[in-house]
Amino acid sequence: MFLLKQFLKQIILPPVPWIVLLLIVAVFWRRRWARKLLVATVALVVAAHSPLVDDWVRYSLESRYSPLIDPQGAEPYNAIVVLMAAAVPAGGLAPFPRIDQELFRRLDEAWRLYRLRPKPIIVSGGHVNPFTPSRDENRIARDYLILWGVPQDAIISEGGSRDTFESAVEVEKILSRKGWKRYLLVTSAMHMPRSMLAFQSIAPEPIPAPGDFTVAFPELDPFRIFPNENTGQRIYADAHEYVGLVNYYWRVRRWEETKDEK
């Protein structure tokens, strides 16, 4: 099922839909509707690279949960759960392991919350690509926290999950073993709605503590009218979250039905 989901994601998300639409236009070019489809495709491509569209779409995701400025107001809680993003081990031309900006900001938020109220940090997430060998990407994230001053015995590794839904399942097992209930859930603000959907259903009681906010105050910038490649990547991530939300509504429902049967 996980492998099928990964393939479907590649087909549903850009740029494959644009390629399919253009192929349809090329095959049926003599038809009047094909020319209309070409105009619609160009309009969709422009919109999918427009900073103005990205601001609107991403704001609807990031505005659902406010940042947790002072964790004292969320007490009592037992742990801080931070979700993984991309971590790349050393290899090739890269002499040292590295993490992407998204994971850096998630870890930075978990570290900030730890400094204010020291609690055990559960780093959840592992290797995702089924066609490449695992290189203990979870350890790379843990090493950053240790480098920043978090004691090694205050960090709990959960490196078996491949996506957010599996993270919720595996974290729930850790919480049950420890006898813990409430915990801070740290992830990117854009990723928090999907994360809360899974964790509220599987591993209650999460307290949202989003980091990595990317939507700034709108500015009068004429250059933001023009589409650009960076915005295309951001809107790809936006679309990934919305598709993920639809998928998680279905997975949560199936999980609850299976749980009721047991």
Explain what this protein looks like in three dimensions:
The protein is an alpha/beta fold and about 260 residues long. It has one domain: Rossmann fold. About 50% of the residues lie in helices and about 10% in strands. It has nine helices and seven strands; from the N terminus they run ααααβββαβαβαβαβα. The chain has a five-stranded parallel β-sheet, sandwiched between helices. It has a two-stranded antiparallel ribbon with strand order 2-3.
Rg computed from alpha carbons, rounded to a whole number of angstroms:
21 Å
Could you give the order of the helices and strands? HHHHEEEHEHEHEHEH
Write down the overall mean pLDDT. Answer: 93
CATH class: Alpha Beta
Beta content: 5-15%
- Which architecture per CATH? 3-Layer(aba) Sandwich
End-to-end separation: 21 Å
Residue stretches low in confidence (pLDDT < 50, at least 5 long) are none
Largest sheet: 5 strands, parallel
Categorize the overall geometry: globular
